[in-house]
């Protein structure tokens, strides 16, 4: 239970009990901010409270020290452009510390890697992310539509939005199939059709419509096939 308790303490300390004003002050004053030390103190106290064993006092102390080092590093090296990246690095490092402590108490091991079903599902999930995106992109590379007239409507799009939408939809379709809820797949197809209809109608390009349709069917088809194979 050490891992679960420390994760709970981390979530409370990092998200629930840390006001936005504290975050702003820490980013502004960095190591000179008193809220950095308040934040670390809260994590230390929460860890001690949730563990509630005097002989485990060193874990709370270790959590406090490592939390300070990780947060101080983030505040020192992050900037406006790298703020998002450092947020995920920061959270990952905290989780690694907690997992390491749990591993020392033999609460966390890698025996799940010997489970064939788990490894198969993991391989399927990884395949349905970037590898499938690359495969679909290569299959459609010779059909990329180009503007047919100067009156063609152009719409701005988020960077790599299509790739991430495809990854999320494939993972959701795969999940629906694995848990035996095929109606969810129909819901996903209908939902994407509704959102895409206005964009395609505005563009008024048959080639673009066909291109999007082929890409969508490929994406869903691969996810369905992988789901069936895993089942």
Automatic annotation (TrEMBL):
Keywords: Membrane, Transmembrane, Transmembrane helix. The chain crosses the membrane at residues 35-52, 58-77, 86-106, 118-140, 211-230. The keyword Membrane applies. The keyword Transmembrane helix applies. This is DUF3307 domain-containing protein.
């Amino acid at each position: 239970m050490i891992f679960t308790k420390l994760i709970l303490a981390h979530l409370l300390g990092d998200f629930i009990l840390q006001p936005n004003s504290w975050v702003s002050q820490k980013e502004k004053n960095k190591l000179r901010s008193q809220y950095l030390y308040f934040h670390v103190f809260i994590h230390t106290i929460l860890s001690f409270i949730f563990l509630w064993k005097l002989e485990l006092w060193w874990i709370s102390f270790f959590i406090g020290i490592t939390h300070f080092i990780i947060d101080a590093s983030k505040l020192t090296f992050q900037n406006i452009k790298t703020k998002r990246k450092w947020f995920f690095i920061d959270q990952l490092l905290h989780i690694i510390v907690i997992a390491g402590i749990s591993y020392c108490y033999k609460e966390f091991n890698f025996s799940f890697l010997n489970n064939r079903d788990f490894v198969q599902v993991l391989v399927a999930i990884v395949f349905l992310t970037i590898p499938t995106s690359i495969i679909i992109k290569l299959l459609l590379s010779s059909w990329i539509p180009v503007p047919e007239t100067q009156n063609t409507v152009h719409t701005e799009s988020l960077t790599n939005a299509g790739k991430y939408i495809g990854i999320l939809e494939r993972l959701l379709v795969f999940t629906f199939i694995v848990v035996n809820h095929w109606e969810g797949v129909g819901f996903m197809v209908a939902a994407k059709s509704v959102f895409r209809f206005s964009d395609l109608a505005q563009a008024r390009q048959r080639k673009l419509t066909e291109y999007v349709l082929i890409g969508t069917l490929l994406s869903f088809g691969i996810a369905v096939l992988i789901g069936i194979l895993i089942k």
